[in-house]
């Protein structure tokens, strides 16, 4: 049940155990604290670890009243599977379209784009670089906004916004318009990857998160496999409705991205207690988690962590200052370009990769260990992603 208490109250006819308690107000997860329950002597965990692990208990405070939630591992696996069926497909598809929207410029430049817009190859490459500048500029502010208004609003809004900007690129007629379009596309996409990973971390325990993160990043592989095929198919529409092929690349990719964002706005819930409200709570519907399953989901997260499980934790300016002034962050950022971007310095990267193949993992682990609070970890990962895309 919890940590064994010490002191006078633990003496006599029983033993006292500290039990994590999660307060739930207004159907959201609140800070995990410790309450105590007096249990008869010998009422601690059974000697059979496997049997004890299959039945779990957690006290949560719901609507002002304490509830002791008991559940089995089968129940827990069932609610986790339901979360997987929602979060993994939608976030992976979002990542896929983000990667395609970033890289479909190769198909655009292989068409009549340069001739139609009177843009030189150098100007086109400058526009491509401005995309990454936009991503770096708002990587941290984007995640601050996410914490302010909630991932269930911000992430779908981001996807819809960059989908609209993707479509608007079809109206580019000169270098200035190309520069603006790519810069604003980068600004709209900034913060999506760390924001999505942080959102997943609020729905999964640390033991479950690694495999879900791997599935999320599989979106990049999907984009690499099908992005060029989509561009090739779009270019075959050259002349349809008097539009060049590169127009159709932006239209197809942009509209598909917008549709994915709308789907995310409809389905991504604020908390386990909000799964029965479409459009982030505006439209009542039959939820994918029952009240019982929402209780189990809430209790299992509280039991797995002593940290605040609130999905709207606030990042303060002091958190950002502490991250940037922490000397342990900067060695990581200095060696990041060498170990992540082989095109910058092929031989240096090759030497590091062969001499220490686990160096990239060491970088990420170092960053996580030295960013102890969720807020600082979110900021640090945003910085990491920004440097990675530079």
From TrEMBL:
One function term, GO molecular function aspect: transmembrane transporter activity
Membrane topology summary: Multi-pass membrane protein
Classification via Gene3D superfamilies: MFS general substrate transporter like domains
Pfam families, per the entry: MFS_1 (PF07690)
Major subcellular site: membrane
Annotated keywords: Membrane, Transmembrane, Transmembrane helix, Transport
A GO cellular component annotation in the UniProt record: membrane
Cellular localization per UniProt: Membrane
Keyword match Transmembrane: yes
Record-annotated Major facilitator superfamily (MFS) profile domain positions: 87-390
First and last residue of the signal peptide: none
Transmembrane annotation, as ranges: 83-100, 129-146, 153-172, 178-201, 213-234, 246-268
Region Disordered: start-end pairs: 1-25
Protein name in UniProt: Major facilitator superfamily (MFS) profile domain-containing protein
């Amino acid at each position: 049940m919890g940590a064994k208490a010490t002191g006078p109250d633990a003496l006599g006819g029983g033993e006292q155990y500290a039990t994590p308690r999660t307060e739930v107000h207004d159907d959201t997860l609140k800070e995990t604290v410790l309450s105590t329950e007096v249990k008869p002597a010998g009422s601690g965990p059974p000697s059979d670890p496997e049997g004890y692990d299959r039945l779990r208990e957690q006290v949560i405070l719901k609507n002002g009243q304490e509830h002791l939630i008991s559940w089995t591992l089968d129940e827990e696996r069932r609610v986790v599977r339901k979360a997987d069926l929602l979060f993994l497909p939608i976030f992976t598809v979002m990542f896929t379209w983000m990667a395609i929207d970033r890289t479909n410029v190769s198909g655009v430049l292989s068409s009549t784009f340069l001739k139609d817009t009177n843009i030189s190859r150098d100007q086109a490459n400058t526009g491509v670089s401005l995309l990454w500048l936009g991503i770096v500029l708002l990587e941290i502010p984007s995640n601050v906004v996410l914490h302010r208004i909630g991932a269930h609003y911000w992430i779908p809004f981001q996807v819809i916004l960059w989908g609209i900007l993707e479509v608007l690129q079809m109206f580019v007629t000169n270098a200035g318009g190309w520069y603006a379009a790519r810069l604003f596309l980068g600004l709209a996409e900034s913060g999506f990857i760390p924001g999505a990973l942080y959102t997943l971390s609020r729905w999964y325990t640390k033991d479950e998160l690694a495999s879900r993160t791997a599935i999320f990043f599989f979106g990049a592989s999907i984009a690499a496999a099908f992005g060029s095929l989509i561009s090739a198919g779009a270019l075959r529409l050259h002349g349809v409705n008097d539009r060049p092929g590169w127009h159709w690349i932006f239209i197809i990719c942009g509209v598909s991205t917008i549709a994915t964002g709308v789907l995310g706005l409809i389905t991504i819930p604020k908390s386990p207690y909000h799964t029965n409200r479409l459009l982030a709570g505006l439209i009542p519907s039959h939820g994918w988690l029952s009240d019982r399953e929402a209780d189990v989901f809430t209790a299992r997260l509280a039991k797995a962590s002593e940290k605040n499980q609130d999905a709207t934790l606030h990042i303060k300016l002091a958190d950002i200052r502490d991250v940037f002034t922490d000397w342990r962050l900067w060695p990581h950022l200095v060696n990041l370009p060498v170990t992540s971007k082989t095109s910058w310095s092929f031989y240096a990267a090759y030497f590091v990769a062969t001499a220490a193949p686990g160096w990239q993992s060491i970088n990420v682990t170092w960053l996580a260990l030295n960013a102890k609070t969720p807020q600082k970890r979110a900021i640090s990962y945003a910085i990491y992603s920004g440097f990675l895309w530079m």
